[in-house]
Amino acid sequence: YNSPAIIPGMQEKQYTPSLLNFFIYNPTFGPREGEEEKKILFYHPSDVEKNEKIRNVGLCEAIVQFTRTFCPTKPAKSLHTQKNRQFFFEPEDNFWIVMVVRNPMIEKPNKDGKPPTVEYQEEEILDTVYGAVVRECYSMYKLFNGTFGRAMEAGGVELLIQKLEKFFYRYLQTLHLQSCDLLDVFGGISFFPLDKMTYLKIQSFVNRVEESLSLIKYTAFLYNDQLIWSGLEQDDMRILYKYLTTSLFPRHSEPELAGRDSPLRPEVAGNLLHYGRFLTGPTNLKDPEAKFRFPKIFVSTEDGYEELHLIVYKAMSAAACFMISASVELTRDFCEQLDGLVGPQLTLLASDICEQFTVNRRISGPEKEPQFKFIYFNHMNLAEKSTIHMRKTASVCLTSVHPDLMKILGDINCDFARVDEDEEIIVKAMTDYWVVGKKSDQRELYVILNQKNANLIEVNEEVKRLCATQFNNIFFLD
Amino acid sequence: MSEEHYLELCENPVQFEHASSVNNVFFDEANKQVFAVRSGGATGVVVKGPDDKSSVAFRMDDKGEVKCIKFSIGNKILAVQRTLKSVTKNASVLGFCWTNWNEIVFITDQGIEFYQVFPDKRSLKLLKSQSINVNWYQYCPETTVILLSTTVQGNVLQPFAFRNGTMCKMSKFEIELPVVPKPAKLSLSERDIAMATIYGQLFVMYLKHHSRTANSPSAEVVLYHLPREGACKKTHVLKLNTTGKFALNIVDNLVVVHHQSTQTSLIFDIKLKEPDSAVNMHQPVLPARSIHPYRIPLAGPAVVPSQPPVPCQLYSSSWSVFQPDIIISASEGYLWYLQVKLPPAVILLQDKGKLMDFLLRRRDCKMVILSVCSQSTGEKGSLPVVATVFDKLNQVYKEYLEAEQTYTAAMESGPSRGSAAQKRPVRTQAVIDQSDMYTHVLSSFTERKGVSHKFIIAVLMEYIRSLNQFQITVQHYLYELVIKTLVQHNLFYMLHQFLQYHVLSDSKPLACLLLSLESTYPPAHQLSLDMLKRLSTANDEIVEVLLSKQQVLGALRFIRSVGGHDNVSSRKFLDAARQTGDQMLFYTVFRSFQQRNQRLRGSPSFNPGEHCEEHVVHFKQLFGDQALMKPSTV
């Protein structure tokens, strides 16, 4: 993934940030000399020579120890060097995750056959963004495996190493470090806008399903990859949402896309036609060989965590996640029952929501291309909204603005994080864009304005107008 | 079984001297009076009405056997018939009916005569008459309609309506007989016809007996709707699913069919739609049950107190049944009103949707409906059933609210032409509002042990959903109940989501309630401020909240943005600014108000009424006199 981008007109090659190393270690596992290798639980890339692994781990250990002398509770989080940047994260006692990212660089060709000069762009990447990426790696592991401690209890270091290997081998391939930005820092949830009545119908649906299929402990409801209802607590939902929208849904979007030309064959349950299908578990209920195994996830409870089957069931654009205690074995019978009950209702709801959505859109008028783009985030409910980002796909998250502007947004965010008080920052970017950051209580708003000749006062007025129209139903200090 | 008797005789029957060789008993359907005539009236006539006021006792001369005796409406005039033949024409007098306090109709076998009575002159004036061969007649006092059986077979019925001195011939109609006799003979008995108003409409009920030849295996009651104007139409068929002797009553708009041989009764509700059967075919609402066993309370001086009440023989052959709801036992001297008991329906009718439809149309339904609600939200409750019950309730509730609204609007727009038609809508017991639900069902239900909180919340949300579906404004106390329940179970995230989608509508009390939750759930602060903002009438509250959080600048900027800066109390802001201990903040706020003073009054100084003296002193102490804004010289 180090494919260079060629900038036309120049013979330079530009390299985006990329993953150099990713390792997990526990210094207490090999405290004695000669046993250092035992500390290492996972190392990527795996083909690195053993001594180099030990050396790199040792270095990290030393840095963390060293910085601890200055602030025992907050050891170093990252190390900046010319060529790369390292991120340290201790998710559980003595377990460290380290990610090493190579700085973006520009390769300038030299005349006379000399080797090209490499220029590292040391200040281009943001600690907050990649720090968040590391934390998310851990959260995702924990969602599917529980804590490191749990694996240790269940099967010692061997089991933990096995699990880490199995999980991260695939997961690291899905990391796209070149397209990480402010949204990774927020790790927010996009909520589907919905009128009260339709929302209550969904509530009613969820409650009824949970009543008739009493095995179901929690339910989450999404439409168009946006959340509408979560029975899970916020933090668990946050990571599950991430998994659903960046991994599971993109993998299963094809049938819907193909739908128009080659109509799907709807399932027939009883007399009712429906479009419901399982995204996890059996792909075809009628297949006599079908397996009724579902991914298991771990969510927090008041006194620890619990393990659950994750059933994701989708009809058209509506998806319902049903979570059932992992101690229960799920049978064909249950799945058929669920399919028969949920399929028709979910199909109906999906078309209801769709209709409501188009009605609302018609009322609000045709969408004009606005003069601005924005990112909004609310720390309280993790609600996130971005007109900068295109639809997420399995591979990359595309933005519609220049990376330089994204970097400015990230910088403003860092400034906000430093103080508790409400703030407003207005920046004029090199490219004639204006970038405005506002923080009010727990909310952050970032606006990119494309008004070359505007002055500061006009920009301020423009943002006020934006707040009045887009955010008139929340308390947002001017 | 005893809780399954859904019909009962009233507790306080009208008691009269039972019929005997010396005592003749008459019943007047119009005034609901029983006449006990001893020895042709010579030894006394005792009249017992439904209440004491309508009871009278008197004597009259014995001028022969009394055939019929009736008071005019309001006990003004007494009419007595002693022979069958009238003197003037050689016709048999079939009977007479009072249609008003001074108007009387005589029905003979040859026609009908309508008279006005002048009591002072002791004379009658013929208002109208009509010649027609009559077999028998029936009278419906409620609507003052007389129905005559005409033709040889007797199955062509001719109704007449009377009102304020006029007699109006309504359109005649024919009852379809199960078998047409040959040769023709009287085939429709007056015993098989009854008139009654059901749901405000006049119906002629025809008890159609089974007939082997006509291939109808069981008897049925056929209802003919008799409108004031227009043709009479066969509208409903009640399937009795049995044969034998029947009698009809109407109680609470239900058709009650008594079956003598099985000693049971059936009830039919013509508004209850049968989804599976053809239009307007009705099956009994409930399975057949007998009237609740009745014991005759022995009263009077002859009775020893310890003597137990005697069981009364129900469905006795000596019973006479009158419309709408009267049962008389002449031999025992009792007149009962038949009553419907609703609680057994709850046990007997499994389909809760149908049950609600049935109950919502009954007179004394409120407590029973509320008990159904409590039951449905109990341990065996199921959400779809709960939803159906709520939807049915709120449908009626909404209709009432709308009628009320239309009425209020009409009243406000002033008396217009034809405004007499605007009557205030009657609030029946079927109107179960949010306060009823809260008091009798929901508040106790949320406290109940052994019900999962998941179910409790689901039920509350279902009720709110139903109210919203009928566009009824949800009352604050329901939201409060939802919030209380969620908070009790630490379900803050759920609460947050509900608020996010505005399921709990904005209001000041709700915003204040949220504020109070801040210590246990910090995001409640933001939710509350958002709500206050949306209300747009709560700017003062927002300022208070911000100041209490020491967000003095925020408060100032906010009040400025909504244009309220000129009216706020400067002291309040200065107090808050000083409390923060931030000197620069105090300086800024102080100067800002000085500027305001300058703008408003032309001088930066504070008015004595603003009580800012101590802050002025404090400002001088901190920054010196020279930092004070000087009055500008314009």
Automatic annotation (TrEMBL), chain A:
<dbReference type="InterPro" id="IPR043988">
    <property type="entry name" value="CCZ1/INTU_longin_2"/>
</dbReference>
<feature type="domain" description="CCZ1/INTU second Longin">
    <location>
        <begin position="216"/>
        <end position="341"/>
    </location>
</feature>
<feature type="domain" description="CCZ1/INTU/HSP4 first Longin">
    <location>
        <begin position="20"/>
        <end position="146"/>
    </location>
</feature>
<dbReference type="GO" id="GO:0016192">
    <property type="term" value="P:vesicle-mediated transport"/>
</dbReference>
<dbReference type="InterPro" id="IPR043989">
    <property type="entry name" value="CCZ1/INTU/HSP4_longin_3"/>
</dbReference>
<dbReference type="GO" id="GO:0035658">
    <property type="term" value="C:Mon1-Ccz1 complex"/>
</dbReference>
<feature type="domain" description="CCZ1/INTU/HPS4 third Longin">
    <location>
        <begin position="368"/>
        <end position="466"/>
    </location>
</feature>
<dbReference type="Pfam" id="PF19033">
    <property type="entry name" value="Intu_longin_3"/>
</dbReference>
<dbReference type="InterPro" id="IPR043987">
    <property type="entry name" value="CCZ1/INTU/HSP4_longin_1"/>
</dbReference>
<protein>
    <submittedName>
        <fullName>CCZ1 homolog, vacuolar protein trafficking and biogenesis associated</fullName>
    </submittedName>
</protein>
<dbReference type="Pfam" id="PF19032">
    <property type="entry name" value="Intu_longin_2"/>
</dbReference>
<dbReference type="Pfam" id="PF19031">
    <property type="entry name" value="Intu_longin_1"/>
</dbReference>
<comment type="similarity">
    <text>Belongs to the CCZ1 family.</text>
</comment>
<dbReference type="InterPro" id="IPR013176">
    <property type="entry name" value="Ccz1"/>
</dbReference>
Automatic annotation (TrEMBL), chain B:
<dbReference type="InterPro" id="IPR009755">
    <property type="entry name" value="RMC1_C"/>
</dbReference>
<dbReference type="GO" id="GO:0010506">
    <property type="term" value="P:regulation of autophagy"/>
</dbReference>
<protein>
    <submittedName>
        <fullName>Regulator of MON1-CCZ1</fullName>
    </submittedName>
</protein>
<dbReference type="GO" id="GO:0031902">
    <property type="term" value="C:late endosome membrane"/>
</dbReference>
<dbReference type="InterPro" id="IPR049040">
    <property type="entry name" value="RMC1_N"/>
</dbReference>
<feature type="domain" description="Regulator of MON1-CCZ1 complex N-terminal">
    <location>
        <begin position="25"/>
        <end position="87"/>
    </location>
</feature>
<dbReference type="Pfam" id="PF07035">
    <property type="entry name" value="RMC1_C"/>
</dbReference>
<dbReference type="GO" id="GO:0005765">
    <property type="term" value="C:lysosomal membrane"/>
</dbReference>
<dbReference type="GO" id="GO:0035658">
    <property type="term" value="C:Mon1-Ccz1 complex"/>
</dbReference>
<dbReference type="Pfam" id="PF21029">
    <property type="entry name" value="RMC1_N"/>
</dbReference>
<dbReference type="InterPro" id="IPR040371">
    <property type="entry name" value="RMC1"/>
</dbReference>
<feature type="domain" description="Mic1">
    <location>
        <begin position="362"/>
        <end position="607"/>
    </location>
</feature>
<feature type="domain" description="Regulator of MON1-CCZ1 complex N-terminal">
    <location>
        <begin position="88"/>
        <end position="124"/>
    </location>
</feature>
